[in-house]
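Memo to structure team: turn this sequence into structure tokens by end of day. - J.P.
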Amino acid sequence: APAPFEAKRLDDYAAKLRAAKVELDPARRREIVLADARALATAQGLDLVEDDALLAEVAGLVEWPVALMGRFDAAFLDIPNGVIRATIRANQKCFVLRDPATGGLANRFAMVANIEASDGGAAIVAGNERVVAARLSDALHFWKTDRKPLPGRPDDGKPLDQRLAKLREQNVIFHAKLGTQGQRVDRIAELAQLIARQIGADPAMAERAALLAKADLMTEVVGEFPETQGLMGRRYAELQGEAPEVAAAIEEHYKPQGPTDRVPTAPVSIAVALADKLDTLVGFWAIDEKPTGSKDPYALRRAALGVIRIVLENGLPFALRFFVGTHRTVFLFVENLALRQAQVSQSIARLEPQRDPQSTDEVIRELSHSSPYDTVRPPTPIEMETLNKDIDDLIGFFLDRLEVYMRDKGARHDLIDAVRNIAGIADLLDIVRRVEALGAFLATPDGANLRAGYKRAANILEAEAKRDKVASFVGDVDPALFKLDEERALARAIEVAQAEADAPLGDSDYEGAMRALAKLRAPVDAFFEAVTVNDPDPALRLNRLRLLEALRTATGRVADFSKIAG
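Reply from structure team:
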């Protein structure tokens, strides 16, 4: 701006800034960047590869966006598209362009300057082109290097297998308390096989994909461009002739990485993605590294949400508690391994103080190479108590994340509470279906009236239990003590409703179970109209309280109606 200016109002301020080549509105800057970049691409017969995150970042970096176009040597198009996009995006904050004729990237890129340069942006374009060329030259070198056999290894044409061996040999640490990346790969591979058997995926393919999933971490390309992990693993897997399902799973096992990222849908990819996330969650729970408040350094909330989205969006019945519990026992080995390592080190230091320290490291390294699934032992009773506590805590964490997810989708929080508190439920899809069925049922007159009857019964039971100083009135109802037809009718209705709900509940048909419960509405209404629960006769009173307890038990098989608001 040539000089200071005065503004009286916000709109006046914005207008005068705009005249001085400053666009105040960030939304407007985004629109300008996107529209101008699209226009430049269209003029060259190309398509802009849109990137919302990059668009937001660029719009925040400039105050007067001016879109320009650069180019790079077409020889660099031999590099995988993901690497080209990663280096241009990360280093220069530029957008790549796609050639609609080939479906691949074009040797063009769109950049956004912060000034209307006097030379039309020629110097800015030239500077960006030099940097992009240098970075792509590095990337091409890494790409070629990764496809060569490692020194001293047989030229078997399998770069990922060589990198996996290197990952194991170098004992790359995943976490100090959770062992090496090699140990983690073994755990994920075993868990992926278990999951594959439940969801109908090929266990052998799931194991193969899991074993190779982290191998690209040892490649030159991923070392330079970490954001390409998974993507490069897939590319190298394709080059070494892996099955398409295996190659896809290597890339997709990281997904979803956020609420807008897509979830894997192929069975093998699902198995490996679930195994990877569950291993992370179970492992950090085992060493008591849980999220606290706003702190979540290991992105455990994101991992849990990823599991939830994969299961729900693929409509998978998934025995969460089984897999969490099975995998949690494996971490006993990790904990014992750390203890064994310490004991071995102390023994060597005490008994052979003159021994070469390098030999100690070799002993520990040999222990570290043991497969956790080969050496895991049954837990002791004390360990089992700790295991169960950890499992329950982690399941509760999943249910908390599920509640947030469902509330974001518009589900009522009280209905979620009513379902999640039913003992033994840890199937995420099962919970969602129960909530949907419960919401639909409560929207009907039968559902609303039954809920009102349940609430009345629950209030009576709570008041009388407090007066009698008992936990509940669960017990056998004696038909011989019935004095009124309404008592007999309610008892019969409860018996019929429970019987008719059994089959639908067994088939996860919660709408059918709700229809069975709906038959309780009329008998419940009639009971409260005609029957005095607190009869002067103690035997009659207890029998009627037990009848109401039976009503609460019958409805509680589908949902905890006490959690429903209103």
